[in-house]
């Protein structure tokens, strides 16, 4: 390992608990609220969960652990870690890190926009402005939030402003550093998120007709599980666990030396799935008790949820709680995304952290504005198409469908074939202090033969090279 003297002064997480909450904070995001619960319900409930767990075991946990190994062994940013682990300053593997930095930007361009909508709805809910909202009001409100129909920049100012508010908060938090920023914030927000979500669950599950919503989520139906459902479960596992874009390499570089990394990966994956299920239990019983159709995506979060929550007793308070927990989820995920280019700038380009935070926020605000202005097809830049897609969709497509699966695949190949098995064993057994040799052998087998094959399949399918 190449460790310079500066590395001994490098900041890191202070304990196993801090590692857990930070990593979970990255995994838990908008995906848990608007994607996972619906996909589960619509694709066979309990049967989908079984498939998802298999995907987690064969792809999610192996890639996550692989990224932890590279980060903790390399003790540097995404690019520097590859350099340190290979011992070669010019290793071509460092391009995997560079791809990670690129993906992080692409995701931030649109994620900060959507997070801005969430912040806006929280503000509206907390100030009581969503109380008693009607069916005819939810859609115009959402259209105004996303800047639909904006003829000029002035008409699109509101979503831009909220995106800047999000960036201001995330930028301030991240500039405080790994311990006083990321660690302190995720350690506070993640437990609070659990409290808020359970409050929403209790209310939702005591509504008349709640049973139907629970049945939607958990009823086991294996007939719905097709090849394409399996592939979407794989893709979901990947995005959910923030893999393939060096987030977990960067966070892994801050892990304590005695962290049991396989164990951390399993606990994070399980807790993240638990959050998704708890979110589903807050959403679908409420939706079904008002005889509405379950759905996914922005329509669910910004139209259906305000509508049904505002109709139940105590609904306005709960709606505010619900959007607050969604704000927490999105914010802790964004901290982990932006940390990738920040660590890169600080360590590779020698820029001080506060300045790196500022520069990154400015880049994201500038380029991210193109996503914000094109989120709706009638928005100010909605008509502009690059490679047949709006800016918003382009950033999402390039990162989720192309860069992240390739990044994950290369990570699995790097850990499976390039690093010596003895090194993997050293890292996963914490230099032989853990007695888990059988598990490690099993891990090496999966990461060599199974994970890459499955990731290749996802990539070929999402890019349309093969159609399943
Ligand atoms: N896991 C986050 C979510 O579910 C998204 C994310 C992707 C975060 C990649 C970091 C990196 O919303």
From TrEMBL:
It comes from the Bacteria. The keyword Disulfide bond does not apply. Keywords: Membrane, Symport, Transmembrane, Transmembrane helix, Transport. The chain crosses the membrane at residues 12-34, 46-70, 91-111, 161-178, 190-210, 230-252, 273-292, 312-345, 357-382, 402-419, 440-460. GO terms for cellular component: membrane. GO terms for molecular function: symporter activity. It is found in: Membrane. NCBIfam families: Na_transp (NF037979). PANTHER family: TRANSPORTER. Belongs to the sodium:neurotransmitter symporter (SNF) (TC 2.A.22) family. This is Transporter. It comes from Thermanaerovibrio velox DSM 12556.
